[in-house]
Amino acid sequence: MNPAGGDIASLIESLAHSDRAVVRTAIDSLVTIGHERPEVRESLNRLLQEVSSEKRWPVAYTLGQLSQPSSSCLDTLMEALGSEDPDIRWATLQLLIRLGKNDKRILPLISDLLNSESPTQRRIAVYCLRGLGLLEDRSVQLQCLGDKDPLVRVAAVIALSKQSRLSEDVLSVLVRLNANDTDSRVRNVAGFALERLGISPDKFSSK
After folding, report:
1. Under a CB-based contact definition with an 8 Å cutoff, are residues 157 and 145 in contact?
2. Is the domain covering 141-207 a CATH 1.25.10 domain?
3. How far, in Å, CA of 98 to CA of 128, rounded?
4. DSSP readout, the chain?
5. pLDDT digits (tens, 9 = 90+) for 109-144
6. Cα–Cα distance measured from residue 63 to residue 68, given in angstroms and rounded to the nearest whole number
7. What burial class does residue 190 get, using C-beta atoms within 10 Å of its C-beta: 0-12 exposed, 13-18 middle, 19+ buried?
8. DSSP of 178-191, one letter per residue?
9. How far is the first Cα of the chain from the last one, in angstroms, to the nearest whole number?
10. pTM surpassing 0.85?
11. Helical axes 168-180 vs 184-197, angle rounded to 10°
12. CATH 1.25.10 domain extents, the chain
């Protein structure tokens, strides 16, 4: 595949198209071409600095699949974890998990999102850490379980239910969430988690 410069320009222009299928096709084509044509990456990096914030995600998502992404590209991907569009969140989540296995810059950025003002970013950050196998720090576990947003607590419970070992204080919090959380979704998922972990709430009844 050796498209002319005009074809590449047309594909890049299509990243801003209103039709999601057109954008998806443009991303896939640019990723294929960009591995062999460094000018594609150069053009996309310039474009990332020029377009408005609402049009940056397709550009950053394409760049993230081509080479080690720039700081601007990573910042855009982190912002996308708080998108109202679940498809964008999911695609970005999968890309960051893949990148995070080799790029040491990813983990600190994801960890910072646990303190974001956006509950959506905090929730997806939990899933990112789970996907990277990096949700083992006790203080991080307790922070996520104590988040003020119920859906973040749900995400944390789901993620921790798949851990092989949890400290007693974390298990105690799961028992408390199952018994007393103000949100029924949290109570229910905590109950399922305790069952999956083989933990009886009675074990903590006297603590």
Report:
1. yes
2. yes
3. 10
4. ----HHHHHHHHHHTT-S-HHHHHHHHHHHHHHHTT-HHHHHHHHHHHHHS-GGGHHHHHHHHHTTSSPPHHHHHHHHHHTT-S-HHHHHHHHHHHHHHHTT-TTHHHHHHHHTT-S-HHHHHHHHHHHHHTT----HHHHHHHHT-SSHHHHHHHHHHHTT-S---HHHHHHHHHHHHH-SSHHHHHHHHHHHHHHT--GGGGTT-
5. 999 999 999 999 999 999 999 999 888 899 999 999
6. 8
7. buried
8. HHH-SSHHHHHHHH
9. 66
10. yes
11. 140
12. 141-207
| Residue at token pair 């956006």 | 118
Which of these, 119, 98, 96, lies nearest to 108 by C-alpha position?
96
**Half-sphere exposure in the Cβ direction for 57 (13 Å, CA):** 21
Q: Determine the angle formed by the axes of helices 56-64 and 38-50, rounding to 10 degrees.
A: 150
Is residue 34 predicted with pLDDT exceeding 90?
Answer: yes
Buried (b) or exposed (e) across 61-72, using 16+ Cβ within 10 A?
Answer: bbbbbbeebbee
Calculate what percentage of the chain has a pLDDT beyond 90: 84
And the tokens for 106? 């990813």
Whether the Cβ atoms of residue 8 and residue 33 lie closer than 8 Å to each other: yes
Which residues contact residue 66 at a Cβ distance below 8 angstroms, ignoring those fewer than 6 apart?
30, 31, 34, 35, 40, 41, 44
Q: What is the pLDDT of residue 204?
A: 64
* Residue 14: CB atoms within 10 Å: 18
Q: How many Å apart are CA 207 and CA 205, to the nearest integer?
A: 6
